[in-house]
Design a protein that fits this description.
The complex is a heterodimer. By secondary structure, chain A is α/β, with parallel strands linked by helices. In chain A, about 40% of the residues lie in helices and about 20% in strands. In chain A, a hairpin with a 2-residue loop joins strand 8 and strand 9. The radius of gyration of chain A is 18 Å and the shape is globular. By secondary structure, chain B is α+β, with helices and mostly antiparallel strands. A 5-stranded mixed β-sheet of chain B has the order 2-4-5-7-6. In chain B, a hairpin with a 2-residue loop joins strand 4 and strand 5. In chain B, helix 5 packs antiparallel against helix 6. The longest helix of chain B is centred in the middle third of the chain and has 71 residues. Chain B is elongated, with a radius of gyration of 34 Å. The two termini of chain B are about 70 Å apart. The chains are: A alpha/beta, B alpha+beta.
């Protein structure tokens, strides 16, 4: 497989140098831009496989960069920012970011998110059968097995789980999930979501209080991960 | 006087006084003109006076003016003159209406002002919250960026990735060092800032070789990776001066790092120092200079230039000012006519008669 190309748009020279070494030593090809203007030019001249975008750029807000990128750029964009406001995260995800990582971040976490974002591009369709340590989800036969035993799910529980599974590794916001499963009239009924996620966790997690598959992104949404 | 009356809002007692004064003055003027003006026109003139008073005074002085003007109109202008007696029914109705309109006028104007005041307060509060958020954002940016660098670099080093070359490892260690210095500077700025805020800033004066200090500070910023050329012009010999070395060091450090962060990489920074009755240290650059209209604000805590694209907290220069003033001195910023900025620190010089370099 060819080396994936990653474009970094960040105004902090220290972060750029760090990311360059980190990604380079993990077999990615890295391009760097320090301003929104340079970043947009570089992305359009030579579209990368993935973009790491900082929100606090000197010449333009990262949110605006994301919006103009999304008019034509379909590969993953991961936001890296020191602004951890839930509003910022939700706005970025709504504007088409695939993921959001707050600074400071752990290198392992960053690499995992990059891999997961690139994987969805590579396969385009998620593998219909996903296997974790003790969990198996088959999207074609609509069956979920925990420790080899069939798990009984209601229709809504299954729809919610399947949606999260199809977007494996990606945060889905509360609003997005509520709209997709219950409809546009329910986007403020976050208690529905909490109840159903809790039920799902009881059925598929070994310890529902310390979930390993259905992760909470505090104040933002949920993410399904499977190793 | 007029300005004082309407802009600065005199105290309540004065408001009563002015209300009465205005009503009496207007009445006297009208009385002088009563040959030419009908008494009904005079009612309108008096009403106008009360309305103007209502624009800026509290409610009770205005009500007093309204009542007083009604009595004056009745007594002096409505025939028969010099009695409170009113001859015609029409005039009686007019008098009652005058009184009511004046009162309603006073109350309504007062209410509108109260609503305006509330709206203004709310706006100010929203502004304060917004300012606080921007501060918090810039502060967290300044602290989290070096922390992110340190965590990221150590993660890389600990993982011991085979692809990491020796050169990469050296670079990562250098980044950690740089980030730690930056973090330390921010923490120092925050601590110094709260020291200034607390008001218990006592300079610890001791004899100081200013020339040596300047060289030491320049060496420090050069080690931190300043790309600009730094030139020095110091009057020789500079006497030993009694001052707080730590404070002066911080002042110079902040001015130099400010100059280096806000000028192009190939700019020239000039440090001059001389001593007569005062110790003068100036730091000049050949960058863009400051927008003239923002110069009065640059030393304010958390102030950042409107057009700036360089990150920062707006603490550095406020500490320069705080420390310089704590040492009994002043700091000034000017744009040089040939371009670039000049910061001048002026400190009282308590000189040593002991000559530096003399036989010891």
């Amino acid at each position: 497989m060819n080396k994936a190309e990653i474009l970094i748009i960040d105004d902090e020279p220290q972060i750029r140098r760090l990311l360059e070494i980190t990604l380079h030593s993990n077999n990615y090809v890295v391009n760097l831009a320090a301003t929104a203007k340079d970043g947009l030019i570089m992305a359009s001249n030579h579209p990368p496989d993935l973009i790491l975008l900082d929100l606090g750029l000197p010449d333009k807000s990262g949110h605006d960069v994301l919006k103009s990128l999304r008019q034509w750029y379909t590969n993953p964009v991961i936001i890296l920012s020191v602004q951890h406001d839930e509003e910022d995260i939700i706005a970025a995800l709504d504007n088409g970011a695939n993921d959001y990582l707050g600074k400071p971040f752990r290198t392992g976490e960053l690499l995992a998110r990059i891999r997961s974002a690139l994987r969805t591009v590579a396969t385009d369709e998620v593998d219909p059968v996903l296997r974790g340590n003790d969990l198996e989800i088959d999207l074609t036969t609509r069956t979920v097995k925990k420790n080899g035993e069939l798990v009984k799910l209601t229709l809504t529980e299954y729809s919610l789980l399947a949606l999260l599974v199809r977007n494996e590794g990606k945060v889905l916001t509360h609003q997005y999930l509520l709209r997709a499963i219950w409809g546009p009239g329910f986007i403020n009924q976050s208690q529905y979501l909490r109840v159903f996620i809790a039920q799902l966790r009881k059925k598929i997690e070994t310890d529902p209080n310390r979930p390993e598959y259905l992760l909470t992104e505090s104040g933002v949404g949920y993410r399904f991960v499977i190793n | 006087m007029n300005k004082d009356l309407f802009q600065n809002k005199p105290g309540l007692r004065w408001q009563y006084f002015y209300s009465v004064l205005i009503v009496i003055t207007v009445s006297l003027l009208c009385y002088g003109l009563s040959q030419y003006l009908g008494y009904r026109v005079i009612a309108l003139i008096l009403l106008l006076a009360v309305s103007i008073i209502a624009i800026s005074f509290e409610i009770f002085p205005v009500l007093l003016a309204a009542a007083l003007s009604a009595f004056i109109w009745d007594f002096f202008f409505i025939p028969p003159h010099f009695t409170f007696h009113v001859a015609s029914t029409e005039d009686a109705i007019l008098l009652i209406m005058y009184f009511i309109i004046a009162m309603v006028n006073a109350v309504l104007t007062y209410r509108i002002r109260k609503v305006e005041k509330l709206a203004r307060l709310r706006q100010e509060r929203a502004k304060a919250v917004k300012l606080y958020n921007t501060l918090l954002n810039s502060l967290s940016h300044e602290l989290r960026t070096p922390i992110a660098t340190i965590i990221g670099a150590t993660d890389n080093l600990q993982e011991d990735n085979k692809n990491l070359t020796e050169e990469n490892k050296k670079q990562l260690v250098a980044e950690i060092a740089k980030a730690s210095v930056r973090l330390n500077q921010q923490v120092e700025n925050l601590l110094n800032s709260s020291r200034i805020e607390s008001g218990f800033l006592q300079p610890r004066k001791d004899w100081c070789d200013v020339e040596e200090l300047i060289h030491a500070v320049i060496k420090r910023v050069e080690e931190d990776g300043v790309t600009q050329q730094i030139k020095i012009a110091i009057q020789s010999p500079l006497p030993l001066i009694k001052l707080d070395k730590g404070m002066l060091e911080q002042v110079l450090l902040n001015l130099l790092s400010n100059a280096s962060r806000h000028t192009p990489q190939d700019a020239v920074i000039m440090v001059r120092s001389s001593c007569n009755h005062f110790l003068l240290i100036s730091i000049e650059d050949n960058g863009k200079g400051f927008p003239e209209e923002e110069i009065p604000f640059v030393f304010n805590k958390f102030y950042r230039l409107k057009q700036t694209t360089i990150s920062g907290t707006g603490l550095g220069l406020s500490i320069v000012k705080g420390f310089t003033e704590a040492m009994g001195g002043t700091v000034e910023l000017q744009n040089k006519p040939e371009g670039g900025a000049r910061f001048t620190v002026k400190l009282p010089a308590e000189k040593s008669t002991f000559k530096k370099g003399a036989d010891e």
